[in-house]
Amino acid sequence: MRDLQSCINIDDLARLAAKKVPTPVYDYVEGGADDEVTLHRNCTGFQRYQIIPRALQDVSRIDTRTRIMGCDASQPFYISATGFSGMMCPKDAELAGARAASRFGVPYTASTFSNRSLEQISASSQGDKFFQVYVLDDEQLASDLNLRSQAAGFKAMVLTIDTIVGGNRERDARSGLSIPPTLTLKSTLQFMMRPKWLLQYLKSEGANMGNFPKMPKVSLGDSHAFVEAMSKLFKKDLTWEDARRMNEQWNGPFAIKGIMSAADAVKAKEIGASAVILSNHGGRQLDGTPAPIELVQEVREAVGPDMEIIVDGGIRRGTDVFKALALGANACSLGRAYVRGLSAGGEEGVTRALTLLKSEFERCMILAGCSSIEQIGPEHIRKAL
Ligand SMILES: Cc1cc2nc3c(=O)[nH]c(=O)nc-3n(C[C@H](O)[C@H](O)[C@H](O)COP(=O)(O)O)c2cc1C
């Protein structure tokens, strides 16, 4: 697609996405909670750090390969869980991202709230995949989901812990978006402005709940109803003991996503988790938290050298990935950077997003004097004065 090739960075993909999907869907992706302070800080937080290049290193060959949660990865980043991908790409939904990630050689995370089923996502490509689990109040449903994800060959479990209730996303309240999108008079007018999207949406499985065919429609526009619906769905008395039990049952790489303090990272280590994902859900849940990048150093100091640390939030440039690694992270995960590509051009759009980040990251490594991931370290970074 020519318009994808004209996108030369992740922000360009967002501008293209805005022309491809209806405005309520675009706002659902780009929006954050309350005043969106955390949403913005997740990106600006990277500006608090400066890259210190080391001179005259042999960078004639660059090796970006690494391992993420037990899986080989061609780059130190992978695709984070994003639910309801059928709204961004009605034709292929999650399958687009899973296929692109597989061809690119990085893991893909399937959300509990995916529009295609775990089995469909697993079968769509050879690549390694992680299963992101929301703990549901319905124990039977929750246990079925875990068994299914194991049977479908997911390589790691990612337990998201920051979504006990839904965040207050005012853009969704204003747009009146519901999940799955409902054709009201207002929304039909907005959807008709994107006829190609609408046609695909009507023709495809659209935003059906892949893993829970019977899930009720959730109105994001009515924040009270939304919070109530989410509260009914999620286990609200989730504790570290549940996390410990889930880790034991999973018996493989196990990450806790939504850790935002050194103390909780230590707890995660104590219950046996192999990784922590520093994340505030892309600023979509609790507004006012720090940016994940600001926590990396203190979390690394607290958990020691062996625990895997993944930075999730605000990654828009290859230099962001480099900074996270220099501060002590093992890898980064991509939310909007990937979803923008998905909205802008499905599988090809995701490939474009991954390719842009790869090229930026590799250029950054060369200019900073690093030829392998192991070489990136504290001497390459300092806090801006
Ligand atoms: C549209 C959208 C849907 C998301 N759905 C989920 C989800 O189902 N499960 C989850 O753990 N996180 C979900 N997230 C959060 C992402 O996994 C990730 O933490 C966040 O997007 C990272 O911030 P970034 O978008 O700035 O990269 C979602 C994020 C977006 C933008």
Give a quick set of tags describing it.
385 residues; alpha/beta; 17 helices; globular
Largest sheet: 8 strands, parallel
Alpha carbon gyration radius: 20 Å
CATH superfamily: Aldolase class I
How many domains make up the 3D coordinates? Answer: 1
- Spatial order of the strands in the main sheet? 4-13-12-11-10-7-6-5
Continuous helix count: 17
Structural class: alpha/beta
Spell out the blueprint of helices and strands.
Elements: H1 2-5, H2 10-20, H3 23-30, H4 37-44, E1 49-51, E2 66-68, E3 71-73, E4 77-79, H5 85-88, H6 94-104, E5 108-111, H7 118-123, E6 129-133, H8 139-151, E7 156-160, H9 170-175, E8 178-179, H10 185-192, H11 195-203, E9 218-219, H12 223-233, H13 240-250, E10 254-259, H14 262-270, E11 275-278, H15 296-303, E12 308-312, H16 318-327, E13 331-334, H17 336-368, E14 381-383
Parallel strand pairs: 4-13, 5-6, 6-7, 7-10, 10-11, 11-12, 12-13
Antiparallel strand pairs: 1-14, 2-3, 8-9
Helix pairs in contact: 2-17, 6-17, 14-15, 16-17
Bound molecules: flavin mononucleotide (FMN).
Residues 29, 42, 80-83, 111, 113, 132, 160, 257, 279, 281-282, 312-315, 334-337, 339 line the site of flavin mononucleotide.
